[in-house]
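Continuing from the previous page of notes. For each protein in this section, the sequence appears first, followed by its structure tokens. Read the first protein now.
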Amino acid sequence: MTRERGDEQVAFAVVERVLGARVEPYDLGGRQNVVDGLLHYPDGREGVLEISSIGPQAEAAITAVLADRTKTRYTVDGLRSTWIVTVPRNFPPKDLKGIDALLLMCERHDVPSLDQLYGAALLGQISSAVTDAVDAGVSANVARSSTGRPPEVWVLVDGVGGLADGGERLLPGELAIHLESPTMQSKLTKLGKDGHNDRHLFLWVRMSAFSYAVTDNLYFGGPLPSEAPDLPGGLTQLWLAGGYSAGGVVRAIHGDRWVREHPYNNSPGTSGDS
């Protein structure tokens, strides 16, 4: 590679901000089978950093957008009901902005779901945006339960949902399964190749990489496991990032603890321990 990728640039900035260390991009200039970055601490210590991701690749774009809580639960002027909207995992984020108008259209026609307007749209009686959305895999339904709160729009990715309790208990086991994959094993091998004792693996986490309970905890600031992380392959730290989300970034520090950082809000070098 001749320059680091965008996801690497963000990951490098996060690591620098949390650890107060300088990250030197290293997988450049035609180097083969090397780590993505070298860590240089103020006290002279050095470490290595590798960047990767887990979860279906097609989710990358919509996952990054819906990591922002304001994009998954919000109010719309004029709506009378709370709506639950589900979009496919490969849904283009730019098309999210058109959903609010479809919900208002449903309420004008007194129907509780988007697909009930499909026939009228086919006949040309209402906007073809309805058929476009339904054909693309978008569903929208009025929520059946009343929360006593102002009407909201809840946006979910298809297949992402369920019980949100217990994610802290499930995380270590689900993470261990991911780390056994051939891709992750190759990352661990690369990190250990040059004998550095300080080894960091930074993973971007897509929405269906884990069960819903785990994802909800990571993305939106839920509880973390209480037991010390037992990381494989000589890993010192493993980073889990769900985008620019309310949950920030979770670090698993081998043999020590799980800790949540908020690098997007804090000053460099003040978020946590190295």
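Done with the first. The second protein uses the same format. Note its length before scrolling.
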Amino acid sequence: MGEPLYELMDMHQAADALDAYLTEREPALQRLRAALAGHGLDPEEMLDGSVYSVSPLWAWINTRATELGVDPHTLTEDPTRPAWPSWARRSRLVDPHPPAATFALVDGFASYLAHVISTAAPQASWRVGEHLISDHPLLNYPVLATEHHQIFLPAIPLYGAYQCAHGRDPMSGTEMLAHTRRTIDAMHGEGPEAEAIEEPMVTVVAELDCFDVGLREDIPAQHPQVVAHLIAELCDRDGVESVHRYGPSALIVNVHDWDELRLKLWCTMWLQRHLPR
């Protein structure tokens, strides 16, 4: 589709992608301000810079993303694609996808999150995502990072926007506030996200006609009910024929039209939302 995905970039492409992402931050925030004003809301009140403001702002974006639904075009045929944020064009998305207006809201929200998190954790800086693990989900992505934690800010909001667009249980403002607080703590080297930075939540290996999915060992040990919930929701996704659990942290997933990365990202995003803290 014209631009390489983050996962397929070399170091020079990833550095250029980070520059493009940073160039877009202030315009994205201004578009969010205009969208709020256009719907009769006070941008100064909604975007006051406090951690608590994340909750009502995300609740409003939830409502808009639900109203906007999905775009009638496929990813390859969507005429608005060239105007999407660079991170959306370079991320692995799936159909049916949200429309350009929803991507713009997520983009603005990511810019605002960066402001809130950087204020609370001023040691954070922008970097190209890196990791000892070659297929780590953040490799080559533009991340806000400290020595303790790194995060691609559009990831969780994009997951939430997809939930809204498809009429599924959306992430609440309270959940997004909790996510923001956990991120700030992790930037300071506190909490489970910082402690587990060297080990991903999910690993996926392609086998013949299926995928072997491994969960980080502490997840089933400490939260067995979450794994059962994960399996139930995964079974309900389009194309997933079956999920077989052959060990506490090991699954076999039979699914059509998915690759390792899509399955890994879906499971990772789902766990980041549902794991208790």
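What the second structure shows: The CA atoms of residues 72 and 227 lie 34 Å apart. The two ends are 39 Å apart (CA to CA). We return to this in next week's lecture.
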